[in-house]
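Module 6 notes. Inverse folding takes a fixed backbone as the condition and produces residue identities as the prediction. Think of it as a translation problem where the source language is geometry and the target language is the twenty amino acids. Below is one complete input and output pair. Work through it position by position during the lab.
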């Protein structure tokens, strides 16, 4: 519980720093990008389902894809990107197909649409 509180505090500080940097460089602050950055990595099943609901909006999905492409950079490591999207605690509750009473990772829109397009769609 204490660790989650610390993570939230760090995310708030990062958001403030990002806004300050944007003001100094003259960039527009993209509130959707800031919202995405503050929610990742997802650490609960409820957070993952909430993200899926948000991804049904085309604008949010497009912004999320841009965010993931920035995380991905020139790397082709799905592993590294997954670790920045989901915590180990959440991934422990999932597997690809949802066997054994676990949640199917392949059914999350963040994986099936956004992550897939970020790696396969940009070939």
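Target side of the pair, the amino acids:
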């Amino acid at each position: 519980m204490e660790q989650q509180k610390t993570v939230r505090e760090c995310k708030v500080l990062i958001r403030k720093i990002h806004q300050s940097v944007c003001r100094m460089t003259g960039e527009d602050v993209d509130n959707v990008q800031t919202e995405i950055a503050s929610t990742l990595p997802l650490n609960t099943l409820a957070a993952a389902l909430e993200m899926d609901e948000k991804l049904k909006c085309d604008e949010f999905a497009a912004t999320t894809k841009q965010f993931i492409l920035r995380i991905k950079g020139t790397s082709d490591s799905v592993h590294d990107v997954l670790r920045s999207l989901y915590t180990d605690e959440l991934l422990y509750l999932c597997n690809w197909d949802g066997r054994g009473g676990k949640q199917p990772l392949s059914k999350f829109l963040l994986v099936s649409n956004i992550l897939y397009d970020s790696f396969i769609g940009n070939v």
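Reference fact for the lab report: The longest helix spans residues 2-25.
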